[in-house]
Amino acid sequence: MAEGLSARVRSKVVDVDLQLDLAAGPVTVIFGPSGAGKTTLLRCIAGLDRPAPGSLVEFEDQVWDGGRTHLSVQDRRTGLLFQDHALFPHLSVEANVAYGLHRMSRRERSNRVREALATAGASHLYGRKVPGLSGGEAQRVALARALAPRPRLLMLDEPLSALDAPTRTRLRAELRQILLNTGVPTLVVTHDRTEALALGDRIVVLIEGHARQQGLVHDVFSRPADADVAAAVEVENVLPGRYLGPRDDLAVIGITSTEVIAIPTESMEPGDEVLVCFRAEEVALEAAGDPHRPASPRNRLDGTVIAVTVEGPLCRVELDVGFHLTAFITRSTREELEIEPGQRLSAVIKAPALHLVRRPHVKGHEQGSHRSAP
Known about the structure:
The chain is an alpha+beta fold. The protein has helices at 38-46, 73-76, 93-98, 106-119, 135-147, 165-182, 193-199, 217-222, 227-232, 331-337; strands at 5-10, 15-20, 27-31, 56-59, 62-66, 69-70, 78-81, 153-157, 186-190, 202-207, 210-216, 237-247, 250-255, 258-262, 273-278, 284-287, 298-311, 314-320, 324-330, 344-350, 355-358. The longest helix has 18 residues, at 165-182.
């Protein structure tokens, strides 16, 4: 694959076929719950583990694994960053970054170390001892060490998970910019939704060792391929419904005794069962009985507030609108509307925000059942 990575990886943990055009997006996220096989896949691509016979890993038309071929990590020229940093405590910062550059002259090695530290935003750490570094500083040094050999492919395994929450939040945006500045295609393994959204251009969702969906990060998070992917990417609202028929080029869906409209994504017949998926941030809340003229097709669902929970800068609002619905709003919106449990409100959702997933008809299925994804 001339412009990317082709990985057909078989092992006891994963059975994955990937064709990644790394030129289409510099950062690809390997995403999924714990135990999905993310790290195993990364280790096989890196050359740390050898996959089972029948596997084939190619990068830019060079075979890394296949048949009798198994290139070493060094021959693949990959840069690796693990969540525990794996720095040598007895070495200085610059000695850690220079590790693996022993074939270079002293002058060239020194220049490369300073260049890598600068790229990782860690020039100020030159001359420091590793035991005195904070978690964020150690992460920068580890990233500089991965960049120093000028790898063809950079791989990060849960790069921020070992950091405390404030440091993780601060470094998230900085890491994205650093990865863009390197110009090196990057694979990032994470189970964290916020991290995936902040770092990635494209995403591969791994569930139980299989790649279940891949594409642009925003598309996959907004339009999951099935219920399992919806749960993995934490779509807050996943509701069983039934296609009732068309209306003005829109699809009318029945959820319990309530009707909603959505953009049809494929050919459907009346009676077909679907999952209606939409994110909590797509829901706007308004005072009940105060409709505005819609600027686009939308759903207006009157209901009662069940609970309000503060989650950082946002508030999670649970409503009963004939089915259970979750919305995210800002604290200022909550204060403006004086939202409290028991209050009557209207939930407004634009039709394009509702993503429909076909599901096989289940005999005896009760239309009254519903589920809100965690």
